Amino acid sequence: MTTWTLAERAAKMNSSAIREILKLTDRPGIISMAGGLPSPKAFPLDAFTEACQAVMQRDGAAALQYSTTEGFAPLRQAIADFLPWSVDPEQILITTGSQQALDLIGKIFLDKGSRILVEKPTYLGALQAFTPMEPVAEGVDSDDEGMLIDAFAAQVGTGADKARLAYVLPNFQNPTGRTMSDARRQALVDKARELDIPLIEDNPYGDLWYEQEPPLPLAARNPEGVIYMGSFSKVLAPGLRIGFIVAPKSVYGKLTQAKQAADLHTPSFNQRVVAEVIKDGFLDRHVPTIRAMYKAQRDVMLMALEREMAGLDVKWTRPVGGMFLWVKLPAGMDAQALLAKAVERNMAFVPGAPFYAGDAQNNTLRLSYVTVSAEQINTGIKSLADAIKASL
């Protein structure tokens, strides 16, 4: 018998609550609104088939070879050109999905006991990525526009107890679907600059707006005080695992060293294929088709909620982009207990508690509307309403 002694940080690692729920719901007949997966109907299969052939015919050997840690230069340039503010491609680091970006940021900025501020609620995957570094994540009171500035300022702290970072998702936030207003963005950037606290801006959903483009990113307002994260997972395909960081040059080198230690570089072939797909304005033509599809499904879900939740003390957000909708159940109702009743009725969601850094609101849940049909949405929301009525 061999004894394996785990590091202290390993004991603090935990499985994604969403991944565990997906296992629970992976059975025929379940209408799952739990996953955060983009719709496979949005994947541009023909464009990728052509790009793969072009890359192999033109640059096959290089595409299959080791490459630089920073990433494929034409892809970095394309990202810089696509962003809505002036960015030097030398500030862009290609990552293996934006989840790796979170991991790298945690590794170079967080020590055991370091404080990091997050929204209430926040992205579960970020909490999971930061956990091995053993920080203290603290939720900041938030409303429909994100972090409340006074609450943020009150929790920054001073001296050795000062928070290292504040992590926010301004656009169509996961899990709530809310969007930070222009005024709130500017106020947050100004207050962060005043208090000298770096911001981490996570923007995987920003291109998925329905009516109008979201306000200017935080990073555009203070490039030296914000690390910006983006991804091709929601606008092309998540299986490629292509994300990126835009970082101030003062910290770019350390992020690159951390990535080099993690995986040397993001797959060369994948980077070249993405660069090939997005050339000649492909995203400008492709992304509007995703927006139209997701907007239609959001509209169906909002109508179903209005119809099925009538007379129940249930509230929900009305996202103007992205993939998620947040539901607040009657006071005292536990979404985890409700999930079991919903699964009995062949419907699944994600309970809200894991999205909080402490002080969880157990009467909340997240719904995703992008991988279910209109018929499934109507049936699933009725099942959810039935489960709620059975829990009253």
UniProtKB/TrEMBL annotation:
Tree of life domain: Bacteria
Cofactor(s) the protein requires to work: pyridoxal 5'-phosphate
Keyword RNA-binding in record: no
Transmembrane intervals: none
Keyword match Transferase: yes
GO function terms (MF aspect): transaminase activity
Keywords assigned: Aminotransferase, Pyridoxal phosphate, Transferase
Residues making up the signal peptide according to the UniProt record: none
Chain ranges of the Aminotransferase class I/classII large domain: 47-383
CDD domains documented for this protein: AAT_like
Listed Pfam families: Aminotran_1_2
Protein name, entry field: PLP-dependent aminotransferase family protein
Upper taxonomic lineage: Bacteria, Pseudomonadati, Pseudomonadota, Betaproteobacteria, Burkholderiales
